Amino acid sequence: MLSGLFALVFASAFAGAALYLNLVEQPARLALDDSSMMREWAPSDRRGFALLGGLALLAALAGLSAFAHGGDIRWLLGAVIALASWPYTYFVVVPLNNRLLAASPGQPAADSREIVTFWGRLEWGLFAIGAASTGVFAWILG
To answer: I want to staple 14 with a disulfide (CB 3.0 to 4.6 A). Which of 49, 55, 78, 127 is the partner?
Structure first.
């Protein structure tokens, strides 16, 4: 079942990208001074948002396709979990993104470092969603 394999690949890529963000990119960002941190955060956030959103959508579509072909409800469960990253991002992460984007990169707000630190903790939720989706898809294929 090729669509199921693609679902696993895209969900794994999503989880891996979220893990990279949390273990590599966020600590490096926090090591910068406030102004540099904000200049790095804005373009990184836009690219990461597009990457993670696209991978979640692809994982969900592939999972739905596998469900349509095989009828195993676990494919639907994995797809729904992958899609859960969209409302999580929109309702939990985006409000912080908007606060950070409203600040001038040259003159970051006094609490910018605290917001970026908290934002990084919220990003672990995306990793959890990706890992859960990956786990469901691996369970089916395993």
So the answer is: 55
Residue 12 belongs to what H/E stretch?
A: helix 2-20
pLDDT along the chain (142 residues), means of 10: 95 98 96 90 91 98 97 97 97 92 74 92 97 98 90
Round to whole Å and give the CA distance between 8 and 4: 6
Spatial distance between the Cα atoms of 7 and 13, rounded to a whole number of angstroms: 10
Model confidence, pTM: 0.93
Distance CA 48, CA 28 (A): 15
70: its two tokens:
């095989």
Query: At a CB cut-off of 8 Å and minimum separation 6, what does 130 contact?
Result: 11, 12, 14, 15, 16, 17, 18, 19, 56, 82, 85
